[in-house]
Amino acid sequence: MSSARGLANHHLYLARLVLDAWGRECEAQQVSAATLSEAFGPACHAHLGRAYGWFLLAVAGAEPLPLEPPSRAADLPPRPAGKAVPGEIREFERLEREGWLAQMLAWAPQRPGQGSAARARQPGNLARPAPSVDGPDTFRGWARDLDSLFQRMGDSLDEY
């Protein structure tokens, strides 16, 4: 599987496997959601990011393929002189600035001591607010959005 599209689909598949395991662990309710997010979030995020990067290379028609995919459209290899930037790449650039893709690319796992749980307790109150945690549903949404984008743009690539 050396084609950029094949690699994109492979990493999307791997992300789904991570999501399935994450979901099973959430259902078992034996480990806190925050700990599961720390365990599964980075792996899932890495696969989604690689899927996106390889698909960027497929859309750009980059050959030969680099050892690692780019993380953003700006990291793509330069276009040959006189060759226009595909409209799909422009759409990716826009989505990277705003919307779901910008959120996916900006995601970073919370470190212990970060977030709302790290705030000091209120005087007279021993409770601390629970940390806000991105669970598997957040990542499932990104995987679904990537898959939809891959399908739509893949169909237009097949026409060429």
Written description of the protein model:
This protein has 160 residues and is mainly alpha-helical. The chain has one domain. The chain has helices spanning 4-28, 33-60, 87-97, 100-106, 136-159. Helix 1 (4-28) packs antiparallel against helix 5. The chain is elongated and about 55 Å long.
Features:
mainly alpha
Summarize the structure.
This protein has helices at 4-28, 33-60, 87-97, 100-106, 136-159.
Helix content: 55-70%
Q: Tell me, what's the shape?
A: elongated
Low-confidence stretches: 115-120
Mean pLDDT: 87
Q: What's the total count of β strands?
A: 0
Domain tally:
1
> What is the end-to-end distance?
21 Å
Q: What's the gyration radius in Å?
A: 19 Å
Q: H/E order of the elements?
A: HHHHH
- Biggest beta-sheet profile: none
Count of individual helical segments: 5
Strand content: under 5%
Judged by helices, strands and strand pairing, the structural class is mainly alpha
Region (Disordered): 111-139
Protein name: PasA protein
Organism: Parahaliea mediterranea
